[in-house]
Amino acid sequence: MLQNSSNYKSTIGILTSGGDCPGLNAAIRAIVKPAVNKYDMKVFGILDGFRGLVENRTIDLTDASVSGILTMGGTVLGTSRDKPTKMSMGGEKMDMTPVILENIKKMGLDCLVCLGGGGTQKNAFHLYKNGGVNVLTLPKTIDNDIAKTDITFGFDTAMQIATEAIDRLHSTASSHQRVMVCEVMGHKAGWLALGAGIAGGADVILIPEIPYTMDAIAKTITERRKRGKRFSIVVVAEGAVSQQEVSMEYEEKETKKKELLKKLKKADLPVIEEPLSNRIARKIEKLTGLETRVTTLGHIQRGGVPSAADRLLATQLGAAAARFLAEKKYNVMVGIQNRKAVAVNIEEVAGMKKLVSPNDPLVLTVRSSGASMGDC
Ligand code: F6P
Fold it and tell me: What is the domain extent for residue 295?
């Protein structure tokens, strides 16, 4: 598909990749409006992430086509978790980088704009490093785990949804004198659990960065009960790990377990693994004797309209991205630092993760409020 883009100052393609999140459409709109109205750019919207780039599926993005999308959740471009280097093609994983490079050339792109999380930053870096493609990225994810940006868009909305869920769990927990275990997303980072846990007044918050022990969790809950508290709320990040799990011995056991699972899978036998929060709830019941229930929030945290804070952030980053594109400032991620949109070299971001430090002010806040991080 050869496009004639000679009348434009430059041509860009925008794609959204990885898990969707609220704020993506606000960011697309904030890039497209100045790009077409102020900077005279031709803008392609590439559908369904890097797969759309392989399959040449694009739309024209114009002022009219981004009108009214500011408040919409998800992404109007569609997304996928496809990686250029390992794309599933007819059941086989293939390196589609050469096809992507060819299509970018045919479209006459001066820059490929990728809106995504950690995986997307790496994929964009790959196309720049190994294919010589000019890239510009924006940090989106509910996990808030991208390096060199104070915050990512999508995070605030997800934290609000999780907080509301924890609020609702309080009343039913109190009525029944129960322990409520609430599992939130966040991949390998604890930002979402920590934020929603504090805002929702959780009694125990478990995050991947601070391994827990069941004894410490049970102690907090039992002591609360002794003080006459009718309920306890335990917020669990999906990536939380126990102190036992990070020990060497455990790793050896896990390796053996994985080998066994592989054999079962090969033999086409069902593999049923107990979800993390169920495991924790079962152990809480055993150690405290208190009735315990589990709520897993899942993809509800990624759906629906973006919060005002996410709309603001996505719009600020999108507007800055358009400016950098006009200045031909490529191969950068547009992040936010001290309220300012900044261009960070993509190599400083790709493959890096921003995790919760055990001394993070929010962790210290939990501890000083008398709640527990499950480690002591
Ligand atoms: O990265 C965002 C995220 O929602 C993580 O918190 C979660 O682990 C993962 O995506 C879920 O991915 P999927 O939507 O592919 O199931």
Answer: 158-302
187 CA to centre of ligand 1 in angstroms: 7
Residue 32 sits in the same domain as residue 120:
yes
Looking at the DSSP bridge assignments, the partners of residue 64 are none
Instruction: Flag whether 235 is in a domain.
Output: yes
Render each residue's pLDDT in the chain as its tens digit; 376 residues.
344 456 899 999 999 999 999 999 999 999 999 999 999 999 999 999 999 999 999 999 999 999 999 999 999 999 999 999 999 999 999 999 999 999 999 999 999 999 999 999 999 999 999 999 999 999 999 999 999 999 999 999 999 999 999 999 999 999 999 999 999 999 999 999 999 999 999 999 999 999 999 999 999 999 999 999 999 999 999 999 999 988 867 677 778 778 888 888 788 877 778 999 999 999 999 999 999 999 999 999 999 999 999 999 999 999 999 999 999 999 999 999 999 999 999 999 999 999 999 999 999 999 999 999 999 9
Instruction: Establish if 232 belongs to a structural domain.
Output: yes
Global pTM exceeds 0.85: yes
Per the structure, the count of domains in the chain is 2
Instruction: Report how far ligand 1's centroid is from the alpha carbon of 185 (Å).
Output: 7
**Whether residue 14 is found in the same domain as residue 137:** yes
251 CB-contact burial (10 Å; exposed 0-12 / middle 13-18 / buried 19+)? exposed
Residue 225 and residue 120 in one domain: no
Q: Is residue 167 part of a domain?
A: yes
With a 6 A CB cut-off, is 186 part of the ligand 1 pocket? yes
User: In CATH, what number is assigned to the domain containing residue 234?
Assistant: 3.40.50.460
CA distance 361 to 15: 35
73, containing H or E segment: none
Name the residue with the closest Cα to ligand 1, atom 7.
Answer: 187
Contact 2, 33 (CB under 8 A): no
Which residue, judged by its Cα, is nearest atom 13 of ligand 1? 19
Ligand 1 lined by 185 (C-beta under 6 Å): yes
CA angle, residues 214, 252, 264, in degrees to nearest 5: 95
| Ligand 1: centre distance to CA 9 (Å) | 37
Whole-number Å distance, alpha carbon 158 to ligand 1 midpoint, is: 12
Index of the ligand 1 atom closest to the CA of residue 118: 1
Q: Which atom of ligand 1 is nearest to the CA of 238?
A: 8
Q: Which residues are catalytic?
A: 143
Q: Ligand 1: which atom is nearest the Cα of residue 158?
A: 4
Could you tell me if residue 358 is inside a domain?
A: no
Q: Are 101 and 133 in contact (CB under 8 A)?
A: yes
Interatomic CA distance for residues 13 and 60, integer angstroms: 9
Question: Based on the domain organization, do 189 and 254 belong to the same domain?
Answer: yes
Same domain, 293 and 317: no
